[in-house]
Amino acid sequence: MYCPNGYRKGTQEAKDSLTNAEETGEFVFNMCTYELRHRMNATAAHVPASIDEMAEANLEAAPCNLVKPPRVLASPIALECTYLQTVHLPSSSTGVPNQIVIGQVIGIHVADEVITDGMIDIHKLKPLARLGYLDYATIDNVFSLERPD
């Protein structure tokens, strides 16, 4: 799932990521890492729908196996998804729409470089997390907890 909240800047049109998923029935989740943070941010530029944000951000596209949209080659993890539904949530206090797009993962790409002993290594991956506002975080402390039963 992802949340393409708001409008295209200066319009009442839905963001491209929402429109594309609903119209094509497919989308790709590309995990953003600390290394990709600046290029990810560049894709947030408000540009006409005819502009390829990936190309503008110097992100090379790679073909997917099961869906038509491309994935980001530099992303160490990409999930090919079929669109299931959009859940419309209450608008913000300023009237900006909020929604959640839900999909089903049907294909997974994981770069060999982020695998250690057959498992995804979070320390190698350094995933970027969106906190809100303009704030982000990386994961740098990983620990396990045994289940009580």
Which helices and strands appear, and what pairs or packs with what?
Elements: H1 16-24, E1 26-30, H2 37-42, H3 53-56, E2 61-62, E3 71-72, E4 77-89, E5 98-110, E6 115-116, E7 119-120, H4 122-125, E8 128-132, E9 135-138
Antiparallel strand pairs: 1-4, 2-3, 4-5, 6-7, 8-9
Compact description:
By secondary structure, the protein is α+β, with helices and mostly antiparallel strands. It contains 4 helices and 9 strands; from the N terminus they run H-E-H-H-E-E-E-E-E-E-H-E-E. The longest helix has 9 residues, at 16-24.
The CATH C-level class name of the domain at 16-111: Mainly Beta
Instruction: Indicate the CATH topology of the domain at 16-111.
Output: Pnp Oxidase, Chain A
The average pLDDT value, as a whole number, equals 92
Structural class by sheet pairing and helices: alpha+beta
Q: Could you tell me the strand content as a percent range?
A: 25-35%
Strand order of the largest sheet: 1-4-5
What proportion of the residues is helical, as a percent range?
Answer: 10-25%
Which stretches are low in confidence, meaning pLDDT under 50 for 5 or more residues running? Answer: none
Pfam families: Flavin_Reduct
GO molecular function, one term: FMN binding
Domain Flavin reductase like: 12-115
Protein name: Flavin reductase like domain-containing protein
